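Researcher: Sequence recovery benchmark, item below. Answer with residues only.
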């Protein structure tokens, strides 16, 4: 099975929008945003980081936006909406940007680690929601631990799904 070419359909490739739940199918359609607040000591705290559609998602009204509503957020949380285009998180410069986010300590480290895996590691976005079920069924034991999967492990899981769409994907995986 490990030598089989991955056959994930083209329309399944993309990133899950943190707002509407639909797929973001092009890097140009993605936007990474967060909320900037101040804690009681006046220090900057950045939270609510998420990857969303930059424009209008398919099937939504033209005036619907997946991005934070800056007016609503500033009223409710006294915070500011900040963000960058998804393409800024691609490649070596994107990795460096993510590392700088971790270094500042203003974001939740777990939030940035998850974002880094989603935008930097091939196949992670496609397999990240499937692995916990496969692991719970004891069909898979990731070498590095849950949430951190090797390319060979993701390729194996995704190949199984592509080849056996009507069979529970974890039932036939042998480790
Ligand atoms: Zn969306």
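Model:
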């Amino acid at each position: 099975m490990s030598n089989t070419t991955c056959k994930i359909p083209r329309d399944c490739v993309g990133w899950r929008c943190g707002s509407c739940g639909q797929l973001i199918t092009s890097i140009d359609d993605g936007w990474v945003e967060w909320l900037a607040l101040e804690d009681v000591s006046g220090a900057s705290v950045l939270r609510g980081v998420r990857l969303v559609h930059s424009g209008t998602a398919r099937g939504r009204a033209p005036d619907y936006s997946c991005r934070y509503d800056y007016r609503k957020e500033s009223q409710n949380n006294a915070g500011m909406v900040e963000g960058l285009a998804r393409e800024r998180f691609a490649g070596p410069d994107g990795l460096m940007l993510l590392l700088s986010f971790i270094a500042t300590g203003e974001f939740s480290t777990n939030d940035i680690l998850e974002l880094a895996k989603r935008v930097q590691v091939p196949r992670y976005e496609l397999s990240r929601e499937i692995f916990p079920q496969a692991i719970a069924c004891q069909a898979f034991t990731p070498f590095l631990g849950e949430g951190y999967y090797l390319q060979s492990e993701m390729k194996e899981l995704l190949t199984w799904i592509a080849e056996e769409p009507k069979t529970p994907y974890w039932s036939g995986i042998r480790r």
